[in-house]
Design goal:
By secondary structure, this protein is an alpha/beta fold. The protein has ten helices and seven strands. The protein has a seven-stranded parallel β-sheet with strand order 3-2-1-4-5-6-7, with helices on both faces. Helix 1 (13-24) crosses helix 8 and helix 9 crosses helix 10 (239-256).
Length: 257
């Protein structure tokens, strides 16, 4: 029997790459995104898939989606945006928007869709290495992704007695549609983030394939690339040099600003 996978933010980037991987494995995938109809990249998919319009910030959308889906095997809360910038340059409107999508969108998704999971089910949250290590000029993004990691750890403890595991995906920079979502109030920080996202060799497809292996193994924290694993372990086991490095980055960024 094929599994049924539900993915938010699935019309591009990592969400679409995850959908392709599961479809290639013979699973049924429900892709969701904010577009009224499935975009061309989704319509080109092969396999057993369906598309639902879903704004993860909208409670009515989630209620309608929950009514339309009777069961799930894997819930992937992937939708997210990026906001770069110093604390003093980031507006409260930007903070509210990124919290509503990156954190509360996940909360809404779990509240609506976790009841659709049976024993053996999996909850997946796409966070970021920014949820584990916190570079300067990314305060809003760091905070929401750190909250996503905390939520995943909490859910794992709450849901394991029901036979449901939780995994949180924490990649570093990789090529995806995230650069297009940059919507902060600090143009210099956005420019730096776009540069880092465009220069990396890591692709959405690589992150998706490696993440699925971690999900299958029911790993709680999935670091799907060597650099994300290195930075996380550096923070955990060599904290003083790690802090010196992040403070150096902060000084350089301050001079450039």
């Amino acid at each position: 029997m094929s599994r049924r996978i539900f993915i938010t933010g699935a019309a591009s980037g990592l969400g679409l790459a995850l959908a392709r991987e599961y479809l290639a494995a013979g699973d049924e995938v429900i892709l969701t995104d904010i577009h009224p109809e499935a975009p061309p990249a989704v319509r080109e998919l092969s396999g057993q898939w369906s598309y639902l319009r879903l704004d993860v910030t909208n409670d009515d959308d989630w209620a309608a989606t929950a009514d339309a889906v009777d069961r799930l095997d894997i819930l992937i809360n992937n939708a997210g945006i990026a906001v770069g910038g110093r604390l003093d340059a980031t507006s409260m409107e930007s903070w509210q928007r990124i919290i509503d999508i990156n954190l509360l969108g996940v909360v809404r998704g779990c509240k609506a869709m976790v009841p659709k999971l049976g024993r053996g089910g999996r909850v997946v949250i796409t966070a970021s290495a920014a949820g584990l290590v916190h570079a300067p000029q990314m305060g809003a993004y760091n905070a929401t992704k750190a909250a996503a990691v905390a939520l995943a750890e909490t859910l794992d403890a709450e849901l394991r007695p029901q036979g449901i595991s939780t995994s949180v995906i924490c990649p570093l920079f990789f090529r995806s549609g995230l650069a297009d979502s940059l919507s902060g109030d600090d143009p210099q920080a956005d420019k730096t983030a776009r540069m880092l996202l465009s220069r990396t060799r890591l692709t959405s497809e690589q992150v998706a394939s490696r993440s699925i292996r971690g999900i299958q193994a029911r790993r709680l924290v999935v670091t799907p690339d060597a650099l994300s694993a290195f930075t996380w372990y550096s923070k955990r086991f060599t904290r003083i040099p790690f802090l010196a490095g992040t403070r150096l980055i902060g000084r350089v960024a301050h001079r450039q600003g």
